[in-house]
Structure formats: structure tokens, C-alpha cells
Amino acid sequence: MTKENVYTSISKDGGPGKDINIVSKRKVKPNPETAALLKEKFDRIEASRLEKEKSNNSSGPSVKVRRRDVKKILFITHFNAFLYAACFFIQTGALPYLAKKLEADPVTFGTLQTAFSVCQLLGGPIYGRIGDLFGEKTALIIALASTTATYVVTGLSYSLPVLFLSRVFSVFMHVMQGSQMIATTLSDQENRAQALARLGFSYGLGMVVGPSLGGLITKHYGEQNAALFSACGTLVGLTIVIVFIPQFNKEKKDAEAGIFDLKKIMSLVFLPGVRGVLLVKLLCGVPLGVLQSMFSVIAMDVFGLAADQNGYLMSYIGVLSLIMQGFGVGLITSRMSDLSVVKFSALTLALAFYALGFLTGLTDFLLLLAPLVFSITLLNSVLSSTITKQVPSSDTGTMLGINMAINSIIRTLAPTVGGFLLHSYGFSSIGFLGAFCNTVNLILTRYIEF
Considering only 34-43, 105-114, 269-278, which range has the smallest mean pLDDT? Predict the structure, then answer.
């Protein structure tokens, strides 16, 4: 038998009246104590509502910066993204040859790559907390200093232990994350995906320039000098940030919390609107990470490409990414909601990966790369934008760090998974893995908040 509701009216001073109407399962005493308790509870609810509305529904940037300074900050941020990418790929191209020169076998080199990914995984969320607590400029300075130290030690590596030591300094090597924090802070929610895509465009330019320049430097001056050249380029970017970017800070709502506040970090991960987006990112990232980690092996063994031809193939992928980041993301996100973009990208990726399992030659692969690169570029931009909208502006740095940590997890697992699939089931298995993961993503979008 269902208990009927009891209706009670209380006046503002606590006596009988009609100022406050209560519906409850039992009789409420109309006295001053009850009125005070209800008023306190209602005030807390209203304050929480107003704070959430102010944090999450604001259409403008989360800090007030002069228009002239915004343009200068964004220009320097984009230049640094380009410079960082160019230096990163100069050093990355020289690293396998340096490791081989130091008598590292493939297993040792794989361990070196895993060590880098683990350092990045551990540092990402903590680096995000640094940005939230001490400001974006401070965070970017730390990232560039960490990157410079990594390249310097790499350039001075004349033994494998020293080369492994260089990976330790990469724990805060998150220049792109720091740049995304600045772009997020200085953009409104409606244009955030486009702002992040433009930053990716600048990074992509560096990705096109870096490998070719790195090959020339390595060929004529050696592997160590290629790493030291990258250190000099990064040092230029660090100097520019220190001298020309003004300090600007977001409002700190939890200033008493520390950098290593794991409880705060984990609370963001398990927010209803965050955990689903992270799961989508993980599922779509795993098959792509596997494909990327095995790309050189696939180019050599499946398509019989020489080293220079593999370089041209990488440049082709870079150009496709630039087209999407420079023009496609802004065009599509201005006409479709975030949820619609995620569904469209997941469907396209599922079909493209499925077709990957049946391709017969290099021409088919080149054609199939277009929808693969376009969709993953679009999806990553929207997911990075969406995830920052789920938290107050004071926590966007930490959220981007968690987002980057997902990439590090994928990079840690992908080589092992990719090697197993390629050896046991062949190239087609990577396509079927991608089709399965993105089909699951399509189903998940019915239940995830965007």
C-alpha cells in the first residue's frame, strides 16, 4: 500500500503560513528550526545551480585578455606548435639510428619507446594541474624546458643507459597539451573545436617539415647533432614564450588543492559527461594506434616500399591531415552538433577500417587513407573540445591532461597488440579490429552525454 503525500505550509518566520509549501511522506513541524533548515538547503541548491551555469554555459573565453594580447598569444602559440612538431620529428627520425648506433636491438628500442609513453602517461594529468593552478604561461615554459632537456640528454647519449635517462626528462614534455590549454582558455565553447583544429594545422606543418629536415641533418651531421639541433630550436620557442607572452590566469576555484591531488583528477575522470567521451576516444584510438605503430612494417612488408617512398607516404598523410584541420573541421562543426559529428566519424571509420581488411594494393590503400585521416582528425578535434566543456574553466588543463593520458595509454599498448595481430592474423586483422571498435562506438553514442 502506497503512503500518501503530506502537504505542509510554513511561513518565512517558521510559523503556520503559505510562504513555503512542502510535499513529504510525513508531517513536517512548522517551526523556526524547520524554516531555517529549508532555507539553508534551498540556498545551497541555488548557489550550486548558478555556479554550474556560470562555469559550463558561458559562451565567452574563461579569462579577460586584451584583444591585441590575444592575437599575440595565439600567434606565438601556433608558431611554437609548428616549431615543436618540426623539432620533435627531427629528433624522432634520428632516434632509431642513434639507438642502433648504441647497439640496441629491436626489443631494447621497443622498451625505450614504452618508457617514453609511460613517462608521458604519468606526467600528463599532473601537468594539467600545473596549468590550472599556476597558469598557462608557466605550464608552457615547463613543457618547453622539459623538451629541451630531453633533446640535450639525447644528443649527449653515448651509451644506452644515458639514452634511457633522456626519456625521464620527457615526463612534462607536453608542449602540444600546453598549447591546447591556451587555445581552450582564449576561445568560446562554440568555436573551441575549430580553435583546436587550427592548432593541429600548425602542428601538421611542422610534421611535414621535420622528417625531411631531420633526414638531411642526420645524414650530414650525425644522430646526436640532430637531437642537439632540436634542442636549440625548442630553446628558441622557450625564449619567445618567456619574453613575449604575458601572464594570464584563470579563476582558481580549488586553490587549496595540490598539484598531485589524485582525488581531484579521478573525480574528473568519473564525471558522467567525461567517462563516456574518454571511452569513445580510447575505442577509436586503439586501432589507429595499432596501424600507426605498425606503419613502417606494413609499408615494407605488405607494399614493398623503400625508405624514401615511405617518407612520401607519411607526407601524403600529413597533407590530408592539414586539409581537414585547416578547412574541414571548422566547416563541419559549424553545421553539425558534436554528437552528430561523433556518430558520422565513427560510421565512416567503421566502414573504412572494414574495407582496409579487403584491400589488395597500394592504390587502394592510398584512397582509403583519405576517409581514415579525415575522420580521425575530425573526431579528435571534437572530442578534445567536448571534454573541456564538461568541466569548469578552472579544470580544463587537468581535463586536457587526462585526454592526453589516453593517447599515452594507446601508444604504450599499440606496438604489442599490433605486432601480435600482424604476426598471427595478418594485415587484414587491423582493419577488422578498427571496424569492431568503431561499431561499438556507434552504439555507445546512444547512451553518452555530449
Answer: 34-43
Residue 259's H or E segment, with its range, is: none
- How far does CA 218 lie from the centroid of its chain? 30
Going from the C-alpha of 221 to that of each of 151, 217, 227, 234, the distances in angstroms are 16, 5, 11, 19
Dihedral of alpha carbons 424, 430, 435, 436, sign: positive
Q: Count, in order, helices (H) and strands (E) of the chain.
A: 17, 2
Q: How many CA atoms lie within 13 A of 333 on its CB side?
A: 29
Q: Which of 26-30, 197-201, 346-350 has the highest mean pLDDT?
A: 346-350
pLDDT in tens, 285-297: 889 888 887 776 7
Q: How far apart are CA 408 and CA 392, in angstroms?
A: 24
d(CA 351, CA 432): 10
Spatial contact of 152 and 228, defined as CB atoms under 8 Å apart: yes
- Residue 8 main-chain phi, psi, to 5 deg: -130, 140
Helix (H, G, I), strand (E, B) or coil at 293: helix
Three cell numbers, residue 58: 558561458
Q: For residue 22, give the C-alpha cell.
A: 512542502
Separation of alpha carbons 450 and 433, rounded Å: 25
The beta strand positions in 259-374, using DSSP E, are none
- Cα maximum dimension of the chain: 91
Place of cell 574541414: 328
- Tell me if residue 6 falls in helix, strand or coil: strand
Indicate the DSSP class of residue 16: B
8 A C-beta contact, residue 161 and residue 271: no
Question: Rounded CA gap, 352 and 350, in Å?
Answer: 6
The cell for 280 is 569513445
What nine digits make up the cell of 441?
Answer: 562506438
Task: For residues 314 and 319, give the distance between their C-alpha atoms in angstroms, rounded to a whole number.
Answer: 9
Count of Cβ atoms closer than 10 Å to residue 50 Cβ? 10
- Please give the Cα distance from 29 to 236 (Å, whole number): 71
Give the closest residue to 382 by CA, choosing from 341, 352, 344: 341
Q: Which triple of cell numbers denotes residue 357?
A: 581488411
Distance CA 293, CA 286 (A): 10
